[in-house]
Amino acid sequence: xxxxxxxxxxxxxxxxxxxxxxxxxxxxxxxxxxxxxxxxxxxxxxxxxxxxxxxxxxxxxxxxxxxxxxxxxxxxxxxxxxxxxxxxxxxxxxxxxxxxxxxxxxxxxxxxxxxxxxxxxxxxxxxxxxxxxxxxxxxxxxxxxxxxxxxxxxxxxxxxxxxxxxxxxxxxxxxxxxxxxxxxxxxxxxxxxxxxxxxxxxxx
Length: 204
Description:
Layout: H1 3-6, H2 9-31, E1 38-39, E2 43-44, H3 48-69, H4 85-108, H5 110-125, H6 130-151, H7 166-172, H8 178-202
Antiparallel strand pairs: 1-2
Helix pairs in contact: 2-3, 4-5, 5-6, 6-8
């Protein structure tokens, strides 16, 4: 019996319900380390929303587990395969590539890791052209950088690639005018697209 036949709808339902219940409990414990109260004097505590959202998820998953034990849901009596072999292959590739992405972020940093992840993922799962994949894989990390590090001032992990961003930080926080910075942003986003277009247009 193949692994796809062993993963039935019944087993998938109870496995997901138990995993989500455990994750909910872990999130509630972690959220409780911060203030989870909300009053007029102190406003909302940092752990308020995560705690009660996790509590809601725990209640839902507990109801699912109870219905499974009592055989009250159609899924609790369904022994048909949950996924077919083709879908299982796609799921396995997705999980493996995401694990590699997470591990690579700690070493290469999120931006370069994201380039390789998007290029691989789009190449494997889509029929998009080489030009589209290249443009998308390069511009997405650029826009992510501009959004988090320039607009929100939230630094993301950069790993060994961090020194490459020092000149960019000097420009971002230097004494340049707003107009010059906007031109830089536009060129940063447009140049990869232009280079890929020229490459595919004139280099066969």
